[in-house]
Design a protein that fits this description.
Blueprint (H helix, E strand, L loop, with lengths): L1 H7 L19 H24 L3 E4 H10 L21 E4 L5 E9 L3 H14 L3 E3 L2 H7 E10 L10 E5 L9 E3 L5 H19 L3 H8 L15 H15 L1 E5 L2 E18 L2 E13 H9 L7 H4 L1 H6 L4 E4 L3 E6 L3 E8 L2
Parallel strand pairs: 3-5, 4-7
Antiparallel strand pairs: 1-2, 2-3, 5-6, 8-9, 9-10, 10-13, 11-12, 12-13
Amino acid sequence: MWPLLRYLHVISDSPQLKFRSAWKEVDAHQKAIASDDFGVGLGMSVLYSAFDYAACVDGRAFLHRMNSLGLLASSGGLPPKVGSMKMADFAAIDQRGKTHIIEIKGTQSSDYALAKAMASGQDQKCSLVFGTPATERRVVGQRLVVGSLLTLETSSRGAQTTVMDPAPEQEETVEIASTVKLHELREPIIRMQVGRLLGAAGAFRTSVAITEIDRPASLPALEGPGQRDRVQGAIREDTARLQSFVSHGETWRGEEAVVPLLAPLEAGNHIYRRARLRQGVSIGLLSELQEGGGRTAFFQDAYPAVDGRMKSPKPESGEAEAALVRPGISISSIELLMR
């Protein structure tokens, strides 16, 4: 909620995407957060448009899930959380089932600072490798470093996003077994993406039930006698307290908040003072999660209809509202209000 409201007042009225001059005086910590937020937002918008990802999740969580499925070939353990060889920021899958490894950078400083940050990302995008060159060609779509440079309205140019596909130097990496299948790589990304969308909509119990691993720890998630019961119970608890709303031709369950803006915001011929924020998941998604499940290690086998609808979110916008919509899956929206 904070970035949605704060950044409404950051963007200048120029045709290009720039920050207002007053942003120069903001605390350095908030500038760093903005660099991360916009770096990820702009970079992933470019990549979603280019590759039509079905889902995209945190890279380290993806790696942990691959480890729990027994698909790591190396015995050296997981990469560090920070440093030149940390796992890349994101793992995504496209509509062909290919896996994409992505490292994101963002800065408000200079071209030099962006180039330096992106140079470090060359190693990070290859901290995960596959057992053989043939496996790499078969299962990997792209390994990319993406960086965004943000500018003030006094600059002669607007924000820029740079995409690099450099050849990295080979260093210590985590290796995925050469026998890995596209089906196996798809599972953790789809499962965690659905869990994240549920959590964003306020369905926290269902999110945990979908993504947790049965005991013993060696038993994969979604497998085990109690898993389906936990999911069904979590959905009942979550739906009882979530709100229903209709938007973009669908009924959703989730959370809604109407909050005052930090300051009146002029857009077009109107002055807006409040905003309605909505996060929701489709009632169809909840119904399918409630009715599906079963003894399988793979999310897409347990919930095939959900998996079949996973597409890139589509941005829709007007003068006073904007939304990211996955039909039949999820919605995230903001609407400006005059009163």
